[in-house]
Amino acid sequence: MAISLSVVLLLGIILVVLLRGGSIKAGPAVVAVLFGFFLASTGMADDIQRFLDSIANTINSIRF
């Protein structure tokens, strides 16, 4: 849950920066948000979550 919240917060901040910087307009941003919202309710949501969890675990296991 903490990883999901962190990712949502990070992506939200990136979206705000892109909107304010003029890199992305409001229309495409709304479409991207709605796409993510509706994608989360499909059957692919579990696969995407497992993929993101495996990436987070891989990054967490890297030792410097």
UniProtKB/TrEMBL annotation:
Highest taxon of the lineage: Bacteria
Protein name per its UniProtKB record: Secreted protein
